[in-house]
Records
---
Amino acid sequence: MAAPLQQPYRRALGLWLIILTAVFGCTGRKITTAVEDQAFLPGPSAAPVVEPAKVSPPPTQRVEPKIETPTPMKPPALEEVRVAEQPVTVPQSAPAPAAAATPSAEISDVFFEFDQFAIRSDARSLLEANAASLKAQAGHAILIEGHCDERGTSAYNLVLGERRAQATKQYLQDLGVPASQIQITSYGKERPFCAEHSESCWQANRRAHFRRP
């Protein structure tokens, strides 16, 4: 009876060994299946990397400057340019200044002999007329210039011309002309009245000349 009981037990034990071997054997082997046998399992997938598109710059366009043609101006109408006429005031000219007082008679020059400053006899009547004219114009001064001919040095003739002017002034003072009204100077031979080298020219240059200062 023991033998028949052990036989089923051995079969069961062997069956369990086969099952365990199959189970543990499957876990250690790599099972390869065909692509068609694999089922698709949906899941999160990495987003594809999209490279930025290269944008080419727009072609540069040359902008031509716009030249505006000036509009011709229309001349204004006659009515627009009319301006009210206004009387033009012409300024009156300023009154002319009063003419300077002149002696009542012409004042004459007097002449001298060569290398002399004494008043000649023919010059006395001229000086008397000059004195009357100067006394009539007491507010106006007179300048007496002493002149000489070209002979002699310049320094000598300056002194001689001054003596001739001084002698003429003294004669007028003796006739009543105030000394404050008379001025004198000497030019010697520097300002001749005649440029010729003759006796007549020399005589014309030996003089006391009267003029207003």
---
Amino acid sequence: MREKFQDWLSLLRPQQWVKNALLFAGYIFAGNFKLPPEKALFDFLLVLASFFSFCALSGTVYAINDILDREKDRKHPTKRNRPIAAGRVSVEEGVALAISSSVLGIVLASWVAWVNQAPLFLLAAVSYPIWGCVYSFWLKRLIIVDALGVAAGFVLRVVAGCLAIKVEISPWLILCTLLLALFIAFSKRRHELILMGNNATAVRSVLGEYSPQLLDMFIAVTAAMTIMAYSLYTFTAPHILLGDKKEPWLMITIPFVVYGVLRYLYLAYQTDIAGAPEQMLRDKPFAVNLALWTLTVILLGLLTR
């Protein structure tokens, strides 16, 4: 029974839940951690509950995707070990888990919406698994749109995090998230294409529309746009984090972003990390850089009360 439970949990891909940390972006960049302790803690707990809600909802999306792609996954060198593709979990069990996970996620999202009177957050939460189904059934088969579909999921997380605590949704935050997600998505497509070679279309039909050279260009463009968008954000936009001051103190964090993007590029081209982006946190230089960026942003916020 223990092994069966582990397979059920594996189907929901808990290693992917790190992506839901994006829900905290609004809390950090709106400077809510600088509020009076009681309010700051209240908002933090709301975002934390939202995080767990999206973990459950993203588990639903992963389960549905594995059910639909079980035949293709069996032809993939690593995906064939997924519970449904390997036959350790039946389709019926997968459907039951997907439904249970979605119910849990929506219940948590409803609680957050009720406690903070934030119905738009509930709408965003319900939209997430719907988007996941649309992506799994249709969008992932269309060139470029497949990457945009992945990026939309990242943006939806950021938007949901802002809606949960009712803070302003910065268009710069959305743009930076969109470009970063596209950069990661194209890097993953390149890894899949090179890994599978002539059998690429057997595991993902849209790979037949790509080429390594085309993806190299897409990756270079989105990497550059990510760095430029974040840089423009830091020295042109008034920052709620800094008390709506226009002084470009956030420019101090640009080197961390440049290093992070370039480090990811290095690992994507020199290792297999692009195939599992969530594993980036196991790379010590990248993890230290991310921690320093986060710490610097928080310190800037605290020093500009």
---
Amino acid sequence: MISRRLLRVKALQILYAYRASESDSLQKTEKELMFSIEKSYDLYHLILLLLVDIMNYAVQRTDIARSKYFPTDEEANPNTRFLDNRIIARICNGRRFSQYLETRKISWSNEEELIKSLYRNMLEWDVYQDYMNNPVDSFHEDKNFISRMIVELILPNEYLQQVLEEQSIYWNDDLEFIGSMVIKTLSRWKENAEMPFLSMFSNDDDRLYVVELFRKTVLHADEYEELIKKFSENWDYERLAMMDIIIMQMAISEAINFPSIPAKVTLNEYIEISKFYSTEKSSYFINGILDKIFALLRADEKIKKTGRGLIGEV
């Protein structure tokens, strides 16, 4: 499932675009938010598909080598350990996976050079050599190799990052989050079970959460802005970065409107997001302002937390 952190980031990105464009269509922008999240889920499937396409390319290369008039012993009797990888085979045979790709019309069909490049990198990779020569042949070894391939070979690949940036603006900051999603899928996979594909949302609460977070932040933007101004007396408010303001408005919205989320979690999440999406010193400024705002909102009983362990949260 897509993490709450990424859902917050998606809402932030769409809110920023909404403010910058001065759009007056809340419904249209909400649809764009959901489309952005769906694109992230597409990427989850595309990263898994990369494994399949690399393996298919390896099969082609093996078949070409075998068909030579005078193949070497290695070409005539190749090591098929990678071609027989249990993880990739089950991804290939996954009905849900295939149906999703077909329904969404997504593939790497126009990125043959990317597949070739990743394949060549794999052949030169020490971990691949160790895997191919490992006398232990097991589901665990196959899964461990694929997990390392995702983390060490695929996700850091600059060519892949470039391709993703060119294909969709919605994927600019998704790779790390979606990579974690893929690794979580692999970690949950048991030997005699089908692939445990993660859903887009962990539950209906997450779907409602991101929509409500966006909607409440927009509808109460002026009210939250006044709070920010009140505690920014030592700053020239007009010179504050729009991104900082939106991050703080989202944090206030979450603290007020989502009683099951601890205020400390909300504060920490938006401070971390600000480190990536705003200026170098923004996190300190945002932390200081939100601390004061949250204290006031608690005093006014506008922040009320419910649920086990949250009542009376300080």
---
Amino acid sequence: MTPLRPSADLLSCRRVTGPDELASHHRIRHETFVREQHVFAGSDVDAHDAREDVMHVVGYCGGVPAGTVRLYPLDESGRTWQGDRLAVLPEFRHVGLGAPLVRFAVATAGRLGGVSMRAHVQVDNERFFTRLGWIRQGDVELYVGRPHLLMTIVLGA
């Protein structure tokens, strides 16, 4: 039996606004990338997290922090953006929070003058991103020691 998805009004995404939300953001990333997937040893926090122009986002399901994404400009002009650290806790993966998180990141970068966004996507997630309008760029590559695909999207399209 397929689990029921909550209505869209129970899902929301917003930029982190304080230390409690930032702690939730980092906890979700840690649970996903360190404890579950073993992509990073100890911590997935890197130099980008300390940048003033980095946006940490939390996705909620029924008011509960359930997912994250991080985004930041790759150039001084703010035309090219990076999206990364997309994570949804296992107990919330059936609710469809991943797509709103990606759309939030894309819309935010576009509103801030971005014209394109890129992401290194785990190979198993290519179809998910393609459905959201992303385009694969090239062959499988190693990113953080794991097979990933570079994918891009035109912002404001």
